[in-house]
Design brief:
Elements lengths: L1 H9 L12 E4 L15 E4 L3 H9 L3 E3 L8 E5 L4 H14 L4 E6 L4 H9 L4 E7 L2 E6 L15 E2 L5 E2 L11 H9 L7 E5 L5 H6 L7 E6 L2 H10 L5 E5 L11 E6 L4 E2 L2 E2 L1 H14 E12 L5 H7 E9 L3 E9 L5
Parallel strand pairs: 1-2, 1-4, 2-3, 4-5, 10-11, 10-13, 11-12, 13-16
Antiparallel strand pairs: 5-7, 6-7, 8-9, 14-15, 16-18, 17-18
The structure holds S-adenosylmethionine.
Length: 330
Amino acid sequence: MLDSRLPLALDGGGLVWPEKGTIAVFGPSADLDLEGFPKDRIQIIHDFYPAFAVWSARDVSVAVVSEGRYAAAVVCLPRAKMEARAMIAEACAFSDGPVVIDGQKTDGIEGIFKAMKARVSVHGPVTKAHGKLFWIDAPAADNFADWAAGPELTEGGFWTAPGVFSADGVDIASALLADALPEKLGKHVCDLGAGWGFLSAHVLTRAGVEAVHLVEAGHVALECARRNVTDPRAQFHWADGTDWTPEHRVDTIVMTPPFHVGRASEPQIGQAFVASAARLLTPQGHLWMVANRHLPYEAELKTRFISVEEIGGDARFKLFHASRPLRNRR
Ligand SMILES: C[S@@+](CC[C@H](N)C(=O)[O-])C[C@H]1O[C@@H](n2cnc3c(N)ncnc32)[C@H](O)[C@@H]1O
């Protein structure tokens, strides 16, 4: 973890924070210990709403994207390689001082270390706790400019970006769900964990739909969704799907719930989405959902809905239709 490696770099390892100016910290986990940072001079940059909200509640400056120049930058390596490269390019483009890169082996820090060492001189590394931390001096503007990446059009004609779910095109499971949706979906629909908007685009092909709420925690994913779903009935919410609350309950929820927190497969997040769906639906509302077959959602569905049916799927994915939410209190 960054908090175990950073002290070694600062205490005799050769890393020194600039005396003045703000230090940008890209993508830190919400429980990062800020020991070692000049806390009044850091800005956390986070695109994922739940982490952004936790950081906002701590006594530090938080932003979704870089805001102006920084005296130094720290990149906490994300799992997706292209997203990691894009984050490093952004940190290098906005920092006038050292750029520190920290990450776990399982998140590809060794490959990034080698790739950066081939281009610029690198200090450190500090190797500890299954990861590495290293840094470079003030980067030249174009050192890593070719790693920068933003939303791009995929072959299927959708905008996606590195690091967003199913960035290469339509997710197979979501396509199964889209094909299984009924003709009538009601007036108000919510796409919980909307990603770059595939399911919402599909929902908007249905007659009678007056509003679709796209609730998504990833800011970049939601920006992609804004480009993909230009229908005026779409409403975009950068929010945590497990506690987002609309003005009125909705008639239908469609979702391919998230099943990972970091690298680990975590059924709890999908189960929290099921509970949220029950909370958000009208008493006659319907949930349509797809999930990996091995994930245990049945018990949660049965706790939250009177009627639960598996309506098909394939060897890898199962489709559910649940109705009549039980815990319909806010
Ligand atoms: C499996 S993907 C499905 C995306 C999209 N519905 C599709 O079918 O392509 C789950 C999505 O939920 C988002 N997500 C994860 N945790 C979330 C949370 N707490 N609140 C809202 N969205 C979340 C992820 O960023 C991801 O885009």
